[in-house]
Amino acid sequence: MTPQIDMRDAFFDEIYEIGRSDKNVVFLTDDMDAFSLRRFKADMPGQFINVNVAEQGMINTAAGLAMCGKKVFAYGIASFVTMRCYEQIKVNIASMRLPVTIIGVGPGFSFEFDGPTHHGTQDVAIMRAIPEMTIFNLSDTSVASRAARLAYMSEGPVYVRLDKGAFPILSQEDEDFLTGFRVVKPLADINIVSTGYMTPIAVSVTEELASRSLDVGLVDLYRLKPVGDLFYESVLAVSERVVTLEESASTGGLGTIVCELLADHGRPIRVTRLASKDKQFVSYGRRSWFHGQNGIDRASVVNAILSGK
Predict the structure, then answer these.
(1) pLDDT value at residue 309
(2) Structural domain 177-307, CATH architecture
């Protein structure tokens, strides 16, 4: 696994190519930047609008443009473009199934020292509650570029959780990304289901466990909504124990998704949910520090699996 380009650039480079071939694509930002976005702005100024720090206005603008036949991408900080704009998203975009992709940068604790206003741990739970919404949580650059194309092709609203930095590639070029998940490590009796930033950490967890003679499978669930029967049949139905690993809050996130599926199918297996605690984090520190505080760092995950918690 070789580190690649910044995940934001992988996503926005694909949006650039899409915008060049489709003049109906419009990109909105609330004064957020990324290196590859500068090229979009320079080459397609008529398709790029900086609304400045006004997230609710950006969502309303996106809705208006979509009603005029545009395919809209709206980009801002994950906690702001969801929680601050929730009513606008629900009423103005989702209720009319408008083709607007909302891009939330900085999920989880990726903004580190910016504090509780910037922590993106509750957005999955609230966006899942919108019936029309599709949700992608990206874990490497290969998923990022394909998610950009899938979002463009969608006829309804999409929410994309976009992290910062370079991530190791976990997929083959010819892999089918329409399933919404991928098997990163071969399935076993115990399987980790992870998402987003936590998937590379989960890879290191499986490697550590293998060194202790415990084979654990790993599945990356990069589409958090919808999650269909194929995921259940391919992963949950063949597992004896499932460990979910996420940065999102323990209420309403990945762990909840997996437990809902198991309950709906009547399969009573052991589920260990490793996630951010159900609390407000009015604190500052490195992302790794937050992981340690929440028991989702590598050592804590390894210990939780070995101890059978």
Answers:
(1) 67
(2) 3-Layer(aba) Sandwich (3.40)
